[in-house]
Amino acid sequence: MGVGGGTVQNVLCYRNGTKDSISKLISDLNGATLENDVDVVVAPPFVYIDQVKSSLTDRVEISAQNAWVGKGGAFTGEISAEQLIDVGCKWVILGHSERRHIIGEDNEFIGKKAAYALSQNLKVIACIGEKLEEREAGNTFEISFQQLKAFADSISSWTDVVIAYEPVWAIGTGKVATPLQAQEVHVAVCDWLKKNISPEVASATRIIYGGSVNGSNCAELAKQKISMHFLSEGPH
Description:
The protein is α/β, with parallel strands linked by helices. The protein has one domain (8-17, 37-67, 78-233): TIM Barrel. Helix content is 40%, strand content 17%. It is built from ten helices and eight strands. The protein has helices at residues 19-31, 49-55, 81-86, 97-103, 107-119, 132-136, 140-154, 179-196, 199-204, 218-222, and strands spanning 8-13, 38-43, 60-64, 91-94, 123-128, 161-165, 207-209, 230-233. It has an eight-stranded parallel beta sheet, with helices on one face. α5 (107-119) crosses α7 and α7 crosses α8 (179-196). The longest helix is centred in the C-terminal third of the chain and has 18 residues, at 179-196.
């Protein structure tokens, strides 16, 4: 599946699941009716990837929540792109706000991680987004563009890249960006890609929204045609 295909990308990121909760997720997805133009990717914690791979319908693809910046080696606790592919992952989430603001990964490092993952044929969900104080200071676009530039400086092809806008202030807080706020960032990101990469990349690259998306608010967000793609995060 190329990044330009389909109309909806759902990524379920279960960060602190258990075997039972993962089994429930698998059962729900296996029993779901998925339209042909809907792409679904599930991102379980590393330790549950094999459980998901062995039980989940092939209609749903598997993502890792992180990957190391280069080829495997003496990097205790890290997972390489090669290992992820070996266990059946097709995607990886990079630049998630928790990796940026808790682990301390900077823009340049994240860009390099994306470049290496792509070189190993992993598709990348590239996360961008601002903290509350940055939004309140009117710096939403500036921060998002800085993060985008770091990806652009490191990668040469956007064919297998999906951009995830995840405002940090709306992750796990119960808050959610309004449809207008999500739409404004979506338009700004498209414009940035058009001006700094190419009109073709801007047109083909999917942009998803991730910020406390759930069954109650996704319908309202989806009313905005350009914001019909979601990165939702599961139970903690």
